[in-house]
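Consider a concrete sample entry:
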Amino acid sequence: MNSSALLKRQRLLLILKSPNLFHQNCPKHKTLQNPCALMQNPLRVLGFSQYSTESTKFPEYQMPSVTWGVVQGKKEKLVNRVKICDYLKTLGIIPDEIENLELPSTVKVMSERVEFLQKLGLTIDDINEYPLMLGCSVRKNIIPVLGYLEKIGIPKSKLGEFVKNYPQVLHASVVVELAPVIKFLRGLDVEKRDIEYVLQKYPELLGFKLEGTMSTSVAYLVSIGVSPRDIGPMVTQYPYFLGMRVGTVIKPLVDFLVSLGLPKKILARMLEKRAYILGYDLKETVKPNVDCLISFGIRREAIASIIAQYPQILGLPLKAKLSSQQYFFNLKLKIDPDGFARVIEKMPQIASLNQHVLMKPIEFLLGRGLPLDGVAKMVIKCPQLVALRVELMKKSYYFFKSEMGRPVKELVEFPEFFTYSLESRIKPRYLKLQSKGIRCSLNWFLNCSDRRFEERLQGDYIESESLGPSFCMGGKLELPGNDIVSDEEDESDDDEVLYRRTVSL
């Protein structure tokens, strides 16, 4: 055996005789986790022994052994967690949902969080609704978020209500999550003063990803013809569409309405003014209401016209309303179901009008001596009658009787007379006819534009009676007698679909 081998053997024996190797429980010595590692490198023995003796100068929790330190930390955490949970239970807060949540180190810190939330206006019941808010640091989470919300316009007095409605906001990062959403809304032309209204109406917007649902819903609406400049007002009116998925909510509804004959351009204009239509459930509300209209005798080709005139009809409890109104019209005017269907086609708003309001014009006409069947005929031809103010009807009727001296049957034939303004149309035009000694029907001198009326006055003959404008779904607004319309008046674009129905309410 050479000298080098002998030296190695002596060092190994020295290691095995060392007391430090086996005194693992002695607090004066550093625990060895892997003694074999030192056997493999016996030259480290001296260095280790020196570290072991110096370690006793420091507190155990600052430089503990690996095993002892972990066990002690867990115990402290468990003790503190039990204390905090007991404290929360004394307040009436159920801590079950926060078992796996990282809680503050002391009861004092937790009590500060609870007191802060209570000063904000939240009750113990509110905290129990979303106990995870107790995991938010007052200094790092709650104060920065509330400060930002106040900065964008939410009044301090309403912050508590806002947090109550959307407590998840307390977990959000102002820079990474909240500020980009506000910037996105401003980019949609939502007015700065309206941001507060939008967020209070739909606070969940603050949790959406910009590249997700919000962007795709806006892009789709623009693609069907909604003007980009109208997106901002739409968001202000009905911000919920920003959270709707295009493929499962918005597009199926649009496709269904288009399938009914509603042009996309008209649908786009409807959505710009009444964005809440997007919130009508297709399967639960829209389709059943369309089927309901058809079951009441409404012609399928008239459905699109009804929706364009009164989009709210898609979201009403329609069967109950139509049943009630149909019974009313049959009881008071003896109008049969087919006549009622024609009334709804011309003025679908009747489905929602109060029957007390409907009865006033009817009673006025009956009180003037018009026969019941005559009034029924007038209502079927011009349903707008039942929504007029009786005061205005009285003035027009007395002018008709005293100044014009015409028989009542002309009102039955042309009930639209009551829908025209007495001072701006009926009286001025009648006086011009009187000055020229022209005798004509009510329809002839009232149912035309001012330009057409002047052309008629200058003409050498009275043209044959026309039925007035006729409405054709999906086409142009065609006027009978177009062959004598002046060139200046006929300036419509062939590609533009004219879809108009005037309802005087």
